[in-house]
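Much of what follows relies on a compact textual record of a protein's fold. The record below shows the convention in full:
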Amino acid sequence: MHHAAFDNDPKLIKFLLNELKFNINIINEEGNTPLHVAARYGRLDAVKGLLSRRANIDARNNVNNTPLHIAARYGQLDVVKELLDKKAKIYTGNKAGNAPLHVAARYGQLDVVKELLDKKVKINTENGIGSTPLHVAARYGQLDVVKELLTRRANIDDENKKGNTPLYVADINAKNNNNSTALHVAARYGHLNIVRELLDKKAKIYAKNTVGNTPLHVAARYGHLNIVREFLKRGAKTNAENKKSDTPLHVAARHDYLDVIKELLNKWAKINAKNSIGDTPLHVAARHGHLNIVRELLKRGANMYAENNDDLVPFELVNNAEVVNFFLDLKSDRVLQQQAE
């Protein structure tokens, strides 16, 4: 039976059950039924065949894992969906007390986590030691799962039976597939308390992700002024460059965050720094039509005649009428001023 499940052969399963009278829930030495095996290897046809013949959908093996635990562990999304459609129990704990959501979080099976949450599994469900899926994902450095759980408002302050919050158990400098650390993720979502606690625990403030962004770049990108201030207070490099040589000032200029621009300039951001294509923050703001940023940068002394790698000054990049008129008025005022002198 187990071999038939592994081979994904519903006809053989039917023959073994009908002709040879095999027990559909027969277990191997690990306590796994054929359904466990089919779930482990993603054998969807076998899963459907076994379930249609009333295999025990919630059978437990030697460590109390059900087929849903097994499918969650190995990221077998189609099997997870089938088991959920057939009303598999979603809160059953294994020997460690982990529900399938904990298991998916532990092993970084993001698609399974999403599916379980979409099926209204409680996001803050606790395991045997009171840990939530967020505790588990943080503990094992599964930052993509952490990000998803935070997006869906998982409780960041829940304490397990040891009195530990998810942050306390986190692998502080673990990285996800984009090389983002927990500090990048906290900066992305504006969690100031998490940022502070991570920094207190010696998280790397200069860590760069795949595109070379530091946590300060990320905070600037999403306009989280309080987090920008915290990073600067803690010694973040104001003029750190990513792989495109963008500084946080370039990033804030691109995304129109005036308060962040002001804060960075107050902390000695290089106002005329050039990125890999020679654009200064003023080029960037002009290119994107952000008039308030253009005004602030010029007020602070940005060079309106700086040329990028294509020998273009900021004015030549503008395609926004309001910004064009501002530059024209500015040039006119300067001409009149020179004539008066």
